[in-house]
Amino acid sequence: MTTTVVWMRSEYDRRLHAFDPDKIGSEFAEALCDHSAPVKCLQRTETGTRCYACLLLHGADLADNQGEAAKWAH
């Protein structure tokens, strides 16, 4: 996975999904949660309800990439 994502709203479920920019094809795109849609049915935006699975997967990726720095101090 990648730490950088593009959030786009799908016309299919009206939720924002996280997409790896390197995996957005010319016709289709697949989100971190495996939701896929034609690019013409996706709108790049930061407002709206986000997909919970994409949030969890992206958050886990961020934590993995931060290593020890991501752990909470006690």
Task: Indicate the mean pLDDT.
Answer: 86
What's the helix-strand series? EEEEEH
Q: What is the β-strand count?
A: 5
Alpha plus pi helix count: 1
Count of individual domains: 1
Query: How big is the Rg?
Result: 13 Å
Report the end-to-end length measured between terminal Cα atoms. 29 Å
Percent in strands: 25-35%
Query: How many strands, which pairing sense, and closed or not: the largest β-sheet?
Result: 5 strands, antiparallel
> Helix fraction?
10-25%
- Morphology call: globular
Taking pLDDT < 50 over at least 5 consecutive residues as the criterion, the unreliable ranges are none
Placed side by side, the strands forming the largest sheet appear as 4-3-2-1-5
Computed structural class: alpha+beta
Task: Describe the protein's architecture and organization.
20% of the residues lie in helices and 32% in strands. With 74 residues, the chain is an alpha+beta fold. The protein has one domain. The protein has a five-stranded antiparallel beta sheet with strand order 4-3-2-1-5. The N and C termini lie far apart (29 Å). The mean pLDDT is 86.
Brief sketch in words of this structure:
The protein is an alpha+beta fold. It contains one helix and five strands. A hairpin with a 3-residue loop joins strand 2 and strand 3.
Topology:
Elements: E1 6-10, E2 16-24, E3 28-31, E4 36-38, E5 42-44, H1 52-66
List keywords for this structure.
20% helix, alpha+beta, 74 residues, single chain, 5-stranded antiparallel β-sheet, globular, 1 helix, 32% strand
